[in-house]
Each structure stands twice: as structure tokens, then as C-alpha cells.
Amino acid sequence: MANGKEDSGPDPSADNARDALLTSVLGLSGDRGYRQLTVEEVVSASGTTQERFRELFVNLDDCYATAYEGWTEVFWQRLQSACEEEDSWPSRIRAAVEWMVHYVKDEPDIARGAIAEAPITGMRVQAARRDLLERLSRAVDSARRETDLSRHSPPPSTAPFIVGGIAWSVECALKNPAEEPLELRAADLVFFAVRPYFGEEAALVERSRLEARL
Prior knowledge:
The protein is mostly helical. The protein has a domain at 65-213: Tetracycline Repressor, domain 2 (Orthogonal Bundle), CATH 1.10.357. 73% of the residues lie in helices and 0% in strands. It has nine helices and no strands. It is elongated, with a radius of gyration of 20 Å.
């Protein structure tokens, strides 16, 4: 009890407004480009108010960074879920790339707003982006535990190289979807990832499997 009023706990409308603002800033960043955005546009798209925005965020950079940090966690969880039923590393990387193709197609503005726009934003976003890329690199590097002992295992630097190459390809596809959609790159990305660890034959098998599914 405070000032004669019963404390009913957190205002649920604040959570709804926060979620709406975070979704709007990523979606509009993908649609128009982050550098072209204003707070007014994000507020209007979210259906909230300038007052609510100022209660929740310091400025547009703070709003985008908060949205991006949350996005990385959801992205990571969804990517892992897409791969968890596969029983080998080559099939998991194929499943991951397949999931990415569908994600980019189903949620183009959010994907573009997070993946393609993040590299041009502030230090807080860059830190979250590095953390995500490091997690992805560790997942890729786990391939070295499954390779045949008769094969020469590639060095640890291979995984960041593969992740960087795939990330660059996804960013290019998001920036120019009409010219070269991700599904046209996807099979080659699987081949690119599998070949260093498991050889050309295994890479061709997974590339063919993905081609048959897209």
C-alpha cells in the first residue's frame, strides 16, 4: 500500500509498449535503413507514444541496441532448435542453412534490420554481434570432434572464416534480394562449410540434400 493506493505490480502496458517499440525499430531498420530512421517513425509504427519511448529508452541507439540484443538470443535459440534433431555435424549445418533461408524469406524486414544493419551501428551492438559470431564459430568448430581420425583436421581459425563467409553472403542477399536471393547461394554455402572438415564427397552429399529441399 502506498499513498492510499494498492500496488498492483508492473504495468503490463509498459511491457507491451516495449515489445512493440523493439519490433518496430528492427522492422523499420530493415525496411528503410537504420540511418534513415527517427524516433517519431518508430513510435508511430509501434502505436505507442513519445512519452512511453522516453520512459523506456535513452534514444534511438539505445532502442535499437536493446532490440538487437534480444534478437540475438531468440535467433540463437531458434537456430539451435532447427538443428537439434540432426544426428551429424554435416546434416546440422545443412539444417542451419535451410532454416536461415526460410527465416530470411518469412521475416525479411526483421532479418534485414538485424543482420544487414547491425554492422553500421554503435559499439553496444557490435559487442552483441561479436558474441553471436563467436557462438556460431564455436558451434562450427565442434565439427573437428566428429571428423574421421584419418583426416587432417583443419585449424581452429577455419570456423570463424566459415562463419564470416556465410554471414557476408546472408548480408549481401538481404541487401539485394531480387538480384541474388539466399536460396541460390544456400547449397554452395553448405558445401563451403562441410568440405574443410569432412571432404568433398560429404560436402556434395549435403549440398544435394539441401538443393532437393529448397
